[in-house]
Specification:
The complex is a heterodimer of chains A (166) and B (352).
Chain A lengths: L5 H20 L2 H17 L10 H19 L22 H12 L2 H11 L5 H8 L3 H18 L12
Helix pairs in contact in A: 1-2, 1-3, 1-5, 2-3, 5-6, 5-7, 6-7
Chain B lengths: L2 H14 L7 H20 L3 H10 L11 E4 L16 E5 L2 E5 L4 E15 L3 E6 L4 E5 L16 E6 L5 E6 L3 E6 L4 E7 L5 E6 L2 E6 L2 E6 L2 E5 L11 E3 L2 E6 L3 E6 L6 E6 L2 E4 L5 E8 L3 E8 L2 E4 L10 E4 L5 E5 L2 E5 L5 E3 L6 E2 L3
Antiparallel strand pairs in B: 1-4, 2-3, 2-27, 3-4, 4-5, 5-6, 7-8, 8-9, 9-10, 11-12, 12-13, 13-14, 15-16, 16-17, 17-18, 19-20, 20-21, 21-22, 23-24, 24-25, 25-26
Classes of the chains: A mainly alpha (166), B mainly beta (352).
């Protein structure tokens, strides 16, 4: 992968990166917009990325940076009940309990949702998650705690408990 | 249940979501905008850069509105002159705009990604879908039917003498069109992620992962891209090529002998004049300031009259007139390198 061109990288990684972008944003249009911006940024710096194996992480970091700029400009993060994206139906093979959980995760403020994605999908440690989000480890713990609290409140039948992953 | 449920739910959704194909046209537009942003940031690095970038990245629909002409309210009428002999073109708040010598601003009614360039009677620009548009340079600035290509382009350039238009299609084919002869005179294939940096009589300046080269039907002349510089931020006119070399420096090469011979180096980003007789250089200064100098026959001379702005981009309107933009302002500098502000306010984008 060290000699891969950007176009080869984009062709190979568009799908998984889009999926990550979708989990981060919870909306298809925003996911595509976020990913296009991050890839454009990566494209013009491609020659400076020495280890092309780290390009996925570079794109992900670019997406998080853009998201964090957006949420930092907000006076206060507000969860929303509005979910413009119709989401998924059972025809896609998603279990009903997964769909319920995703519906609530989408309602989380973006930083909380990003924290969950980095911790539980990308398998990052608290320290690495903090580095990706540009915040403290304490903030990651706090965001995780509050996210789980909200999910528990919304879906009491799930009885979510925190299991440390690192 | 544990957080394993969250992981499983997220992974299930991740795998279930429909993934749209990458919109290459939109993506290339973003790449161009990012390159402009990066180029401006290198020179200025500050708030003023954002204005040009916002302009460059404007997104809207492709509807062509009715052109309007607006004498500026704060100008004393049509007797006011800009000091520029001919109409100049730029993107103002996302709209293709003309400023005529009387100081009248004309909104050409076209959302635009940027101005490619103009000749005596034609102005070439990109609409917001990356199509080349051609208009007359006199009011009412009508669209001229039959653009050299009806397809969106990845990158495009007009030669400084206005004779050649070159573009890179989404099929990775480079085309050079001789506007004087009204025919395509050069075509060749490039690799993915290539970009046209400039065009001249000697060929098309192409930047790609392999570097930078001037290509024509007979072959190519490689040009060194030093110190991690970017080939895409290059320029060509006649036999001269400028290349951005990081950090914040440029080199001037002469290709007349068939290979790149170093002529001079500059402490900033350089833009060649239409006939390569002069070079404008934006030189970074401490505290995020910058100055503009003009190279002429080996001598660099700073322009005057730009004290109120931080220059972010320059463009040669003709052999003797240099346009300079900074924060929400546009200046024109004459042959004596004296600059005056033009009656334009808003986010000004000078280049494609």
């Amino acid at each position: 992968m060290t000699d891969i061109s950007f176009s080869e990288f984009m062709a190979a990684r568009w799908t998984p990166l889009y999926r990550t972008a979708y989990l981060l944003t919870g909306r298809r249009e925003e996911a595509e917009d976020l990913l296009q911006s991050a890839l454009a940024r990566t494209c013009v710096r491609w020659d400076t990325i020495r280890d092309k194996r780290a390009a996925d992480a570079y794109v992900r970091k670019a997406m998080l940076n853009q998201m964090s700029r957006q949420w930092r400009t907000r006076r206060r993060e507000q969860p929303t009940d509005e979910l413009p994206d119709a989401g998924h139906d059972g025809g896609l093979g998603v279990r009903a309990d997964h769909l319920d959980l995703w519906t609530e995760i989408r309602r989380l403020p973006p930083r909380m949702r990003a924290t969950l994605v980095l911790r539980y999908v990308e398998d990052l440690s608290e320290a690495d998650t903090a580095a990706e989000l540009g915040c403290s480890v304490g903030s990651v713990k706090s965001q995780t705690h509050h996210a789980l609290k909200r999910l528990r409140s919304a879906l009491p039948e799930l009885q979510l408990t925190v299991r440390e992953m690192s | 249940m544990t957080t394993t449920e969250i992981r499983e739910a997220l992974l299930a959704i991740e795998q279930a979501v429909d993934v749209p194909p990458a919109d290459q046209v939109a993506f290339q537009a973003r790449v161009r905008a990012e390159r402009r942003r990066r180029n401006a940031g290198r020179t200025l690095i500050g708030v003023a850069a954002a204005a040009a970038v916002v302009t460059a990245g404007i997104v809207g629909n492709a509807v062509l509105d009715e052109p309007t002409s607006t004498p500026l309210a704060n100008t004393p009428g049509e007797t006011e002159v800009t000091g520029v002999g001919d109409t100049v073109f730029f993107v103002l708040d996302g709209q293709l705009t003309a400023l005529d010598p009387r100081g009248v601003v004309h909104d050409l009614g076209q959302h635009s990604e940027g101005v490619i360039g103009w000749t005596k009677d034609r102005v070439y620009a990109l609409d917001d879908d990356s199509h080349i548009t051609v208009r007359r340079t006199e009011p009412p600035f009508d669209v001229v039917p039959g653009a050299p290509t009806p397809d969106p382009v990845q990158s495009v350039a007009l030669s400084g003498d206005g004779r050649y238009l070159a573009w890179l299609g989404n099929d990775n084919m480079v085309h050079r069109y001789d506007l004087k002869a009204d025919r395509e005179d050069l075509e060749f294939q490039v690799f993915d992620n290539a970009s046209i940096a400039g065009v001249a009589d000697g060929g098309v300046l192409v930047a790609d992962a392999g570097g930078l080269s001037l290509r024509d039907a007979n072959g190519e002349v490689p040009i060194p891209v030093a110190n991690g510089g970017d080939g895409w931020a290059s320029d060509v006119a006649r036999d001269l090529v400028t290349v951005t070399a990081a950090p914040e420096a440029s080199r001037l090469y002469d290709l007349s002998e068939g290979s790149a011979q170093l002529v001079d180096t500059f402490a900033g980003s350089a833009v060649l004049g239409p006939y390569a007789e002069r070079v404008a250089v934006i030189v970074p200064e401490p505290a995020d300031r910058a100055r503009v100098e003009v190279w002429d026959g080996g001598t660099l001379t700073p322009v005057t009259g730009l004290d109120d702005i931080i220059p972010t981009a320059v463009r040669w309107a003709d052999e003797t007139t240099l346009l300079v933009t900074g924060r929400d302002a546009l200046y024109a500098c004459d042959i004596e390198l004296r600059c005056g502000q033009l009656p334009v306010e808003g986010d000004v984008g000078l280049n494609e």
